[in-house]
């Protein structure tokens, strides 16, 4: 147990994770079950101040997570959607990995690698992503000597998960449907 933390915040964190898991399970049920989920109605983030995509561009996102992530407006819309369902950690991890690959300094790379590991990979991390034990172990080994490819396997697993799970939910969402009207 972490020193200095009272039992109450730890309990709240555990409860929040339980709720997240239960919502995740519910969202994996057939489409009809998704209709019963009451979305969290926090003010959605407005997409970045970029030009709204053409209808053709937006329609391409249905079949290409790459095209969605490469478009600033698409990325902001996707991020807002994921936040509305409390599932933005995969996208945040993927983006952190993209930023990590741009680092040139070995010292900064080691510092950023540690931060990414503590935030997304380690067990009970605040934004723990769902990766298998093999991938987690391989990533930990890669971090013994951080390199630009330290997170590649984990990032590819999370990308595949977003492509298979998050993207289809986004395409069915009001966020996307409003965009293609």
From TrEMBL:
Domain of life per record: Eukaryota
A GO term from the CC aspect: membrane
Domain RGS as annotated: residue spans: 64-180
Pfam families: RGS
Key words, A-Z: Cytoplasm, Membrane, Signal transduction inhibitor
UniProt-listed PROSITE patterns: RGS
Main subcellular location of this protein, as a coarse class: cytoplasm
InterPro entries found in the cross-reference section: RGS, RGS_RGS5, RGS_sf, RGS_subdom1/3, RGS_subdomain_2
Biological process per Gene Ontology, one example term: negative regulation of signal transduction
Compartments where located: Cytoplasm; Membrane
Its biological purpose: Inhibits signal transduction by increasing the GTPase activity of G protein alpha subunits thereby driving them into their inactive GDP-bound form. Binds to G(i)-alpha and G(o)-alpha, but not to G(s)-alpha.
Protein's UniProt name: Regulator of G-protein signaling 5
Organism: Leptonychotes weddellii
């Amino acid at each position: 147990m972490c020193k200095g933390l009272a039992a109450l915040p730890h309990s709240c964190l555990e409860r929040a994770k339980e709720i997240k898991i239960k919502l995740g399970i519910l969202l994996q049920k057939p489409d009809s079950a998704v209709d019963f989920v009451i979305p969290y109605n926090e003010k959605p983030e407005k997409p970045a101040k970029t030009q709204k995509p053409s209808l053709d561009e937006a329609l391409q996102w249905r079949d290409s997570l790459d095209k969605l992530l490469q478009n600033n407006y698409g990325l902001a819309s996707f991020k807002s959607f994921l936040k509305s369902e409390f599932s933005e950690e995969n996208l945040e991890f993927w983006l952190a990995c993209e930023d990590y690959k741009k680092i040139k300094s070995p010292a900064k790379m080691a510092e950023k690698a540690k931060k990414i590991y503590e935030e997304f990979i380690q067990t009970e991390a605040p934004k723990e992503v769902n990766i298998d034990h093999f991938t987690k172990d391989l990533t930990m080994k890669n971090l013994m000597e951080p390199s630009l490819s330290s997170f590649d396997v984990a990032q590819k697993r999370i990308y595949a998960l977003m492509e298979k799970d998050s993207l289809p939910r986004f395409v069915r969402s009001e966020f996307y449907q409003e965009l293609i009207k």
